[in-house]
Structure formats: C-alpha cells, structure tokens
Amino acid sequence: MDQLSGLMAARRNEEIALEMMKFIAATTGYGKTGAPGAGFQGGTVNKAEDYAAHLLDLYTRCLNTINGKR
Prior knowledge:
This protein is mostly helical. The chain has helices at 2-28, 48-66. Helix 1 packs across helix 2.
C-alpha cells in the first residue's frame, strides 16, 4: 500500500510540473524564436530540437521545484 501511495504522489507531482511547464512556456514564449523587437528578447532558438531541449529543461526545473529540490 505504501508503494501505491508513493507512486500516486510521484505521478501527481509529474502532472503538476507538466501543467506548470505548459503555463510558463505559453505565457512567456519560453524557448521560442520571435521577431526582433524593442528591448531585451532573450536567446533565440533556431531548431525544433533546441526548442524541445528548452522545454525538457523547463519541465525538469518545474519538477525539481515541486519536489522541493534545487
């Protein structure tokens, strides 16, 4: 029974981290390329693989935050 509750907690944390990652990516344009504009635009990504790597990194950071790790 303890294994089941641990598995459910881990799954819940993964789902929370995924929703958090999607929210951050959608609202900030994290890792996407954009048209040049005024002000600081951050780094640009020019390949789909780079964008996917950015999203995976963001997901890992979100999961570590949910799990209380740095």
